[in-house]
Design a protein that fits this description.
P-loop_NTPase, single chain, GTPase activity, binds guanosine-5'-diphosphate, alpha/beta, nucleotide-binding, receptor, GTP binding, 11 helices
Length: 301
């Protein structure tokens, strides 16, 4: 299996929008180059703000004769990209002082929430941590079953109640169980139904409040899971969830199969929310801490 960079590169170049392609076969910086680069950035869903920032800086450097050749431009582009991504590349540290550390995951259906929870549970378990999962999506029976399947696969207890139960009460129970068992990490799943958005946001706020009852510092992380393949749509989702619950970290999934991975730049430029993880496949080991340098290399090389 190809490594992270290879897979990201394949994904990001899927529809020919690999940004590094702009340099291929070019010896000199001609007038078209920056325009072409601008188009490539926008096509990869880097977004207007981040694209303008990058192109603006490159144009400026060109005018001041600071860019002599293609390799200098390549380097300057790399610096610009790193300047946007480095501040948000903040892996999620497990807080050992909290028993348990509580991770509340939110995001719309299909974003990859359950899969991300499963992968995380597996990673923590491999590190020797005790994990409890809360089946907080009480709206869909399939969601509970899917979480239970991950629980079985990773040997992690899943606290659930029948479909239709109060989500906050499930999460409260799970928190209590996690405390009683001396668990290191509690990861709570939540519903992600789109059409009744306002109810969902109320439900999430209630879950948030309920977690604070047994530990006033909980949740310690509100992880928003977004499908990177939805491009600019992911920005709109981030906006909504940010308003309802104080999102403290992002997991961007499906970067293995999208040409819109540039949305990470748009997200970083607009919100500055730490990017904790990226998903690069469906397998249990396909969740990685976000590494800005590896990501930029995959885009440019
Ligand atoms: P949820 O509704 O948010 O819980 O989403 P799921 O976890 O059920 O994921 C929806 C689909 O996306 C499933 O088929 C997953 O296997 C798939 N998926 C999740 N993360 C990734 C990823 O990083 N890469 C790929 N290729 N597929 C993913």
């Amino acid at each position: 299996r190809p490594g992270l960079i290879g897979r990201l590169r394949n994904g990001l170049k899927r529809t020919g929008s690999g940004i590094g392609l702009v340099f291929m076969g070019r010896k000199y910086i001609d007038a078209d180059l920056l325009e072409e680069l601008e188009t490539l950035l926008l096509t990869a869903d880097v977004g207007m703000e981040a694209t303008n920032r990058i192109i603006g800086d490159l144009t400026d450097r060109l005018k001041r004769n600071k860019l002599d050749d293609i390799s200098a431009l390549h380097q300057a582009l790399r610096e610009n990209m790193m300047a946007i991504l480095e501040p948000v590349a903040q892996p999620l540290e497990v807080n050992r002082d909290k028993k348990p550390m509580v991770i509340l995951t939110v995001g719309i259906n299909g974003a990859g929430k359950t899969t991300t929870i499963g992968k995380l549970a597996e990673q923590y378990r491999n590190e020797g941590r005790r994990v409890v999962l809360a089946a907080g999506d009480t709206f869909r029976a399939a969601a509970v079953e899917q979480l239970q399947a991950w629980g079985e696969r990773t040997g992690t207890p899943v606290i659930s109640q029948p479909t239709g139960s109060d989500a906050a009460s499930v999460v409260y129970d799970a928190h209590q169980a996690a405390i009683a068992r001396g668990a290191d990490v509690l990861i709570a799943d939540t519903a992600g139904r789109l059409h009744t958005q306002s109810n969902l946001m109320d439900e999430l706020r209630k879950i948030r409040r309920v977690l604070g009852k047994q530990d006033e510092t909980a949740p310690h992380e509100v992880l928003l899971v977004l499908d990177a393949g939805t491009g600019q749509n992911a920005l709109a989702q981030a906006e909504q969830f940010r308003e309802a619950v104080d999102v403290t970290g992002l997991a961007l999934t499906k970067l293995d199969g999208t040409a819109k991975g540039g949305v990470i730049f748009a997200m970083a430029q607009r919100f500055g929310i730490p990017v904790r993880f990226i998903g690069i496949g469906e397998g249990v080991d396909d969740l990685r801490p976000f590494d800005a340098e590896a990501f930029v290399d995959a885009l440019l090389d």
